[in-house]
């Protein structure tokens, strides 16, 4: 497996020329990097005007590896080739390096770039990408990979410190300014002489090994603009202390979302939560994040706080609410579960209304975390929940109530990972172990580690509540002096109970309040949507997400209406699909080019992509939007499929794909008005920005 690294943008608040003078002092050796024992210049050239300087070095590293492994490998040092291209006119330094030792077994490739900060020409930016691919290593592939990743992470962490050290050294020597290059400029001052009393070891030429091309990984190329890149200082201020490899995972997943979701990017804190939930395994985090984004879009969760109005019964009998913050600045939510009539709430509201209310609480929690991050000046990405169980009894173990609780836990765990920083359970009664046995299997192990359980009045002693919450804000019902506005609850009047039929209809209505539809696509059975256009020059717009598999999107036009849609019963494929349908409109007897025509080029869409677009109709008639299963190209002797494509094909269960889509038809006049409004809004925004600048 290829290991990849992408750094954030690191900023030196010093001019480019001064940073370059500090950088040159790292050679031929650097006492701050003990493993970097020597370097020799093997090639050097400069342009006639001195604006460009290219230098190639051969560097020796004393890798911290077990002695046995070094003896088996038969080497003491690992040699790298580093090629630097300094452009003084453009004020950039491009660095490319790769391993010379064991290049037929291990491929290491690194690129770095120093450049001028886009918003401050007296600052310097630094970016770095790298890849590691271990083909074979005497049966020690896993060990070598761990050693390489550990040492590389350590060197990344030291990189900025080393430049800062030499910048300070220059300042101590009285060098605080290096003039920029001009046509009459001299080259940069040479590096200071090495202070070593002994010369570095002479680098012997190793045996010649077959050359291997080392192309830059495709996903290491940052296609985002400078404004889209993450700054290291921003990460530390708003996201917290991350290791270099954790920063790399965040940047690469964020970049993947930018490329596939076309601007619909969740906040960095949100992405980071999913990475933490899967221990920074990018593939696993990407999978659950895409599922969650699809869920949020389908149920319009992003607009929940603006659109959801909780029923009065929740205001009166739901015993939960926000209450200041804990000692770490996390928002504090209090839930008096023992005083809550869970049976009455479920009978009066239904499971789905309770779920939507809990989702609104989580959305409010995310908003409060952002606010507290600004207020306290440090990253706050989760909240603390205090659950008071006084009054908990067998009534709370009512089966439909427990079922609703488990459903809520399941949805919250899937879509709000790593939002719970700490859970304080107070006054746990004897019946609590029964409830815990039922609920705990549905709670993630990392989440369970955050639970602190106190029986009786134990929370009042040492190691209790005052260790996590300031004494001044402990609620009055727990012996504190702070008035708490959380409702006291009580029994929900039976007159407010609703019949099972009413609750079922309400539940269906709540979760079908979405403008999106779902469809299943099979090999040989596309999903097709008919749109009749009366006026030419109308505009068909679409917005769809590819939830599973890869699909091809087509748009066709026909002057005659197709036969009534035939739905694939799904039974022919041996699959049931409760959340999606499959409709086919184009008759098999129709001929493309005679009975119907293609009006847009086919668009291949990968799993996880979010696609938006529009088509201006040229003729009235019937337009058919089609989502078709994307088949892999046939294998040939000269054009073999990629391994990744073969694996992707195998992962598509039973040749099934799934999309979630929304379409709308706008009149040409309406479309022009929308376009004009957007243009005016954009112009107004840019004018305001200019005035601020």
From TrEMBL:
Which stretches make up the CRAL-TRIO domain? 310-486
Recorded hits in PROSITE patterns, A to Z, give: CRAL_TRIO, GOLD, PRELI_MSF1
Q: Where is this region: Disordered?
A: 181-204, 562-581
What Gene Ontology terms for biological process does this UniProt record contain? negative regulation of RIG-I signaling pathway
| Record-linked CDD domains | SEC14
**Which is an annotated GO molecular function term of this record?**
RIG-I binding
Which residue intervals define the domain GOLD in the entry?
512-665
Q: Which GO terms describe its cellular component?
A: cytosol
Domain named PRELI/MSF1: which ranges? 3-175
Q: What is this protein called?
A: SEC14 like lipid binding 1
From which organism does this entry originate? Myripristis murdjan
Q: What is the lineage of its organism?
A: Eukaryota, Metazoa, Chordata, Craniata, Vertebrata
């Amino acid at each position: 497996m290829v290991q990849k690294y992408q750094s954030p943008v690191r900023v030196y608040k010093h001019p480019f020329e001064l940073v370059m003078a500090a950088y040159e002092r790292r050679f031929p050796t650097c006492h701050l990097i003990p493993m970097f024992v020597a370097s020799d210049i093997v090639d050097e050239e400069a342009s006639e005007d001195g604006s460009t300087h290219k230098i190639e070095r051969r560097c020796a590293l004393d890798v911290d590896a077990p002695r046995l492994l070094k003896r088996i490998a038969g080497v003491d040092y690992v040699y790298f080739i580093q090629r630097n291209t300094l452009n003084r006119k453009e004020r950039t330094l491009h660095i490319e390096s790769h391993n010379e030792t064991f290049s037929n077994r291990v491929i290491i490739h690194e690129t770095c770039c120093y450049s001028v900060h886009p918003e401050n020409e007296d600052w310097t930016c630094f970016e770095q990408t790298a890849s590691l691919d271990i083909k074979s290593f005497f049966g020690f592939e896993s060990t070598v990979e761990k050693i390489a990743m550990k040492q590389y992470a350590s060197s990344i962490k030291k990189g900025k410190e080393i430049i800062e050290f030499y910048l300070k050294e220059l300042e101590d020597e009285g060098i605080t300014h290096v003039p920029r290059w001009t046509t009459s400029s001299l080259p940069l001052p040479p590096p200071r002489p090495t202070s070593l009393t002994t010369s570095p070891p002479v680098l012997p030429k190793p045996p010649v090994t077959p050359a291997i091309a080392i192309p830059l990984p495709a996903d290491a190329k940052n296609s985002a603009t400078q404004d889209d890149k993450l700054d290291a200082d921003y990460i530390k201020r708003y996201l917290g202390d991350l290791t270099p490899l954790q920063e790399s995972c965040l940047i690469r997943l964020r970049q993947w979302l930018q490329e596939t979701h076309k601007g619909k990017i969740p906040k960095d804190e949100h992405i980071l939560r999913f990475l933490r939930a899967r221990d920074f395994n990018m593939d696993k985090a990407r999978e659950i994040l895409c599922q969650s984004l699809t869920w949020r879009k389908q149920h319009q969760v992003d607009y929940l706080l603006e659109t959801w109005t909780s029923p009065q019964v929740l205001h009166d009998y739901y015993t939960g609410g926000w209450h200041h913050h804990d000692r770490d600045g996390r928002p504090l939510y209090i839930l008096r579960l023992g005083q809550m009539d869970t049976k009455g709430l479920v009978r009066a509201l239904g499971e789905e209304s309770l779920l939507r209310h809990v989702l609104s609480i989580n959305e409010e929690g995310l908003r409060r975390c952002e606010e507290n991050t600004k207020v306290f000046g440090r990253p706050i990405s989760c909240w603390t929940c205090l659950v008071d169980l006084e009054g908990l009894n067998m009534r709370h173990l009512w089966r439909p109530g427990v079922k609703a609780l488990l459903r809520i836990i399941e949805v919250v765990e899937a879509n709000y990972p790593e939002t719970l920083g700490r859970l304080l359970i107070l006054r746990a009664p004897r019946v609590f172990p029964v409830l815990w046995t039922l609920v705990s299997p549905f709670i993630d192990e990392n989440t369970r580690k955050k639970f602190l359980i106190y029986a009786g009045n134990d929370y009042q002693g040492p190691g209790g509540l005052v260790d996590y919450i300031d004494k001044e804000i402990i609620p009055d019902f727990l012996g504190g002096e702070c008035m708490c506005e959380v409702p006291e609850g009580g029994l929900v009047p039976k007159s407010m109970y609703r019949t099972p039929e009413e609750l079922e209809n309400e539940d269906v209505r709540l979760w079908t309040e979405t403008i999106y539809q779902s469809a299943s696509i099979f090999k040989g059975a596309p999903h097709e949507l008919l749109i009749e256009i009366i006026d030419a020059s109308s505009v068909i717009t679409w917005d769809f997400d590819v939830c599973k598999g890869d699909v091809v999107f087509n748009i066709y036009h026909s002057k005659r209406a197709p036969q009534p849609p035939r739905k694939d019963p799904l039974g022919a494929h041996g699959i049931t699909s409760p959340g999606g349908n499959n409709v086919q409109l184009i008759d098999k007897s129709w001929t493309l080019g005679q009975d119907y025509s293609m009006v847009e080029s086919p668009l291949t869409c990968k799993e996880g992509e979010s696609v938006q677009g529009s088509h201006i109709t040229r003729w009235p008639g019937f337009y058919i939007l089609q989502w078709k299963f994307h088949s892999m190209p046939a294998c040939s002797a000269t054009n073999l499929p990629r391994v990744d494509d073969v694996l992707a094909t195998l992962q598509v269960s039973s040749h099934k794909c799934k999309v979630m889509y929304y379409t709308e038809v706008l009149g040409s006049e309406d479309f022009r008005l929308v376009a004009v409004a957007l243009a005016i809004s954009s112009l107004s925004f840019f004018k305001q920005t200019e005035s601020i600048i």
